[in-house]
Amino acid sequence: MADDNRIGPPSFGSEREMLRAFLDYHRATLAMKCEGLTDEELRQQSMPPSTLSLLGLVRHMAEVERAWFRRVFEDNDAPMVWSDKIDFQAAYDAGASTRDEAFAAWENEVERSRRIEREAESLDLAGYQPRWGEQVSLRMVMVHVLLEYGRHNGHADFLREGVDGTVGA
């Protein structure tokens, strides 16, 4: 892995500053876990029967960003990135994907999510979560997505170690 260029979250700040910083830190962590690997290495799966791979995690997080920011606050009917229906598992199938394709989709969704958050007047902004059929706040969405990154960055640690032995951070 390359040098760790992530910006660590602050020790003090407003709720919004903290949520934003921790989300960006975890986004940077996922990218860092994939640095320096070939498409083939990024597609390397964990232990059978799991089909999980680093590239699959990037694809999945593009879906998560879209489902929790774009579909909640902009367009409840926006299609998912990798499936015609709401199938988060489909994103894990990275067999035909390339780094460029997966990262372009993920980075596009991350930028849209950041814009939605920046433009919101407060964390109390309400949006409709179509999967749940109820209103949710931007605060809840940011916490939920942060937890998704935390969980999947743990998976990324193990996957990266399996690819080339790199551990840590």
Briefly characterize the structure.
The chain is mainly alpha-helical. The protein is built from 5 helices and 2 strands. Strands 1-2 form a two-stranded antiparallel sheet.
| Total number of distinct structural domains | 1
The largest sheet, given as strand count, sense and whether it forms a barrel, is: 2 strands, antiparallel
Tell me how many strands there are. Answer: 2
**Could you say what the CATH topology is called?**
Four Helix Bundle (Hemerythrin (Met), subunit A)
Order of helices and strands: HHHHEEH
CATH architecture: Up-down Bundle
The overall average pLDDT, rounded, is: 92
Strand fraction equals: under 5%
Spatial strand arrangement across the major sheet: 1-2
What radius of gyration results from the CA coordinates? 16 Å
End-to-end Cα distance, whole Å, is: 10 Å
Tally of alpha and pi helices:
5
Helix/strand-derived class? mainly alpha
Report low-confidence residues grouped into runs of 5 or more. Answer: none
Instruction: Let me know the CATH homologous superfamily.
Output: dinb family like domain
Organism: Streptomyces chattanoogensis
InterPro entries: DinB/YfiT-like, MST-like
Protein name: Mini-circle protein
